[in-house]
Amino acid sequence: MNAQCDPNWVPRTGIHLRKAGVRFDAVRVDGDRGRALADDLARMTGGEPGPVVESSTGCRGVYFLVPVGGASHRPWPPGVTRLTAGPNHISYIPVPALDGMTWPLSWRYRPTAAGRLVHPRLLLAALHSACEPPGGEPGKEPRSPGGRRTLS
Length: 152
Known about the structure:
There is one protein chain. This protein is α+β, with helices and mostly antiparallel strands. It has one domain (3-127). It has two helices and seven strands. The strands form two sheets. A five-stranded antiparallel beta sheet has the order 5-2-4-3-7, with helices on one face. Strands 1-6 form a two-stranded antiparallel ribbon. It is globular. Residues 129-152 are annotated as: Disordered.
């Protein structure tokens, strides 16, 4: 990323907490599921899914930075945490510097342009696709072409 694309919400050093609802909201998906989802989005977007932060500790959260309001009022699958702001509710999103000591946070996908964030509908579609069992809808048993249940 060149200097003119350096968003002013990214700290110069270390880690800062950014209040959700000001410049962006976030969707957190923990562990390997979140990392695989980020990589799927990167493949879908030619390597530029938008800014994605990952943590190396605890639940190993992966934070997808989405536009303000992009995490609200959507049917997110179980295991997804929305970091938003609203009446009597404040969330903070961890943001690491682009370089230097930021452990346990790092950029899985760095910001590439000012104002470019993860597209929430694309993220939601990728999440639902990842949750769907092969050959069927989430939560439904696979069926043969004739409509009969298949046995595993």
